[in-house]
Amino acid sequence: MHNEFTAIVEQAGKWFIAYSPEIPGANGQGKTKAECLKNLAEAIDLILADRREDALRGLPTTAMRELVAVG
What we know:
Order of helices and strands: EEEH
Number of helices: 1
Number of strands: 3
């Protein structure tokens, strides 16, 4: 599944730092902008996977799971 999120990137000294306003808690950092964005993407992926697992835990056996495309 392909998702796109906003990345706010700032340079702090020799480091780049980034966060995504759509995914609270998702932060990235790196010595290059590309490394920072890769780190942020990994953080977003981990947070969304954790939220999916939490949401699916304890569902009744009669619940139906479907994918929905957005945008």
